[in-house]
Amino acid sequence: MKEKCIISTNQFVWMLFSIITSFTALQIPGLLISHAGRDSWMSVIGAWFIDLLLAMVYAYMGLRFPGQNMVQYSMTILGKYVGRIVGIMFPLFFLMTASLLMRSLSALLVNLFLPRTPMVVVLGLGYVLIAYGVSKGIEVIARTCEALGPIYLISMIILLFMGIPEVKLHRLKPLLVEGVYPFLTGIPFILSFIGICIIMGMYIPICNRPKNGFLAKFIAVSIGATTIAGSLCLAIGTFGSEQAGNMLNPSFQLARSVHIGTVIERVEILWLMISIGAGAMTCANLIWAFNLGIAQITGLSTYKPLIWPSVLIAFILSVTCFDSNIDVFNFTFYSYMFIALFVQSGLEMLLFISALISGKRGKKTQLLS
């Protein structure tokens, strides 16, 4: 059975925006500030620029091989066997990222609101919801992101504006007091998380306007990078770089420090629920991309039989790979960056250069979804 799913450019944008910010805004600011200090926002700008250059490559490859995602044109460029070896690394990366994100979100929920609830219960319920969403198809996921994305963005903008009165500008100065090394080395770190949106290579073939792939990425990553940089500046200006760098979730602490008069005081609960919803949709996108890629590599006619087994694998990885939250952060800081950059940049540049040298181009094909 073959299904043909189509997403709009607008849905493309909000799906990428949710993917870029849901992981980065919740989990990464504290780690980046601890490394780059008050210059961390400059790392975001550098990562934004490099990510756009990489997006140009993905957009070009999507047009050079119409109707094919990166898994498919890996086999077109490199051949049946080598192409499968390279192509399978993309869906495996999506599965790893989904497992890491779900573990991080579940740990956040357990630590802040459900201290007596076993993490496996939270993870299990989350993965059941994700499996249900993936079973409904990418069009349902896209419509959900289209509705949730603007709400998520508005909540972040409100949080930023409400936190401005707490900012002390002297905490943001002086710039580059420790030289350029901290913020330059922060660029690949933050890029590895913003770069999760290489999933655009899976979206371009099913977009109603494939030529808008780069435009969608430009809009999404520009909005996402702006909000991330704004939250970094707000956290540093409010708490100082030393204190913010020692926080697990500076954005959550910012939400706790603001209130709307005497009517709404627990703003952080509302903001966190919206953020976790965006994170769950990101996981659904990643699991969908994993299933689709594996189905195409193995030659299955549909990815639907893979949904529950893939969710079970992701659940096992989330539970067994880390003994504590410290292990999660150590993996995120010391290992994830290198794996992500290898897949996001190294593999795609290999395919790009190989396509140029061999002169291979794709033909219009029907996509499995």
Write up this protein.
The protein has 369 residues and is mainly alpha-helical. The protein has a single domain (22-358), classed as Amino acid/polyamine transporter I, CATH 1.20.1740.10. It contains 16 helices and no strands. The longest helix has 34 residues, at 325-358. The termini are close together. The mean pLDDT is 87.
The CATH class assignment is: Mainly Alpha
Mean pLDDT: 87
Uncertain ranges: none
> Which word captures the global form?
globular
| CATH superfamily placement | Amino acid/polyamine transporter I
Number of E strands: 0
In N-to-C order, the SSE pattern is HHHHHHHHHHHHHHHH
Return Rg in Å. 20 Å
Overall tally of domains: 1
Helix fraction? over 70%
Helical segment count: 16
- Strand content range: under 5%
Provide the CATH topology. Answer: Amino acid/polyamine transporter I
Largest sheet: none
> Which structural category fits the helices and strands?
mainly alpha
CATH arch. level architecture:
Up-down Bundle
Cα separation of the termini? 10 Å
